[in-house]
Amino acid sequence: MNARTIGPGDRNAWTVDEQRISLVRAPRPPRPVTIDALPVAVELDLARTAVIIVDMQNDFCHPDGWLASIGVDVSGARGVVDALVTNLPAIRRADVPVLWVNWGTFPGRMNLPPNALHVYDPEGRGVGIGSIEPTGHPVLQRGSWGAAVIDELLAPGAADGADTWIAKHRMSGFWDTELDSVLRNLAVDTLLFAGVNADQCVLATLIDAACAGYDVVLLEDASATTSPAFCWDATLYNVRQCFGFTTTLVSIAEAASSSIAGGAT
Fold this sequence. Notes:
The protein is an alpha/beta fold. The protein has helices spanning 58-61, 66-69, 75-78, 81-93, 114-120, 179-185, 198-211, 229-243, 249-260, and strands at residues 4-9, 12-16, 21-22, 32-35, 42-45, 49-54, 98-103, 164-168, 190-195, 215-223, 245-247.
């Protein structure tokens, strides 16, 4: 009899044939690695780990994007590009899922309450989310240029279907999105966070993940903020003190490469 699978992928699938359905998921052998981290070193299982990259999109990171157009210095946000470009290939080779979580609101902004709009339009002038001024495209709107990941991060790997894309419309990537469902189907419980702004959307998503029971780790070299330096310092303190750990993407990539070569520690 030919066995077949039912499920969104091999990480969460039933096995079926003509006479029975097995609800037993295929085992995933653990791949533990130990990472230098703060406040203490961390051992994590690459087989149950995913990377979440928040808001590395044109409106926040491109010199022609929305933030830059209203006078925000986006050079800090662009400072994490090299870390992502250099280290994500090793992450993907180790079969660690990569998820991109970007602002991408509905046209007409009908899924947004006043408090979400107020963040970017404090005086109620009709600017911010959904506005086409001053960039000429709808700010942070799903399907727009501003909601797309910056070109430098699209290849290789991200653009070929290997990664997962989630559109969000709050500071947190978990609220009213598919993120939690996707993560559960990936059978992961440790989340590594990167992107911008570290003290805003990255932190909000990380906190919701921690509250939902995920292990959370902030990647310092792959995260940044356009906020004042004290916001970055407070973010690192709060992550380490209240929610999880901080480390670097390069440390994860090196450990992932070692695990592939049979040298997991």
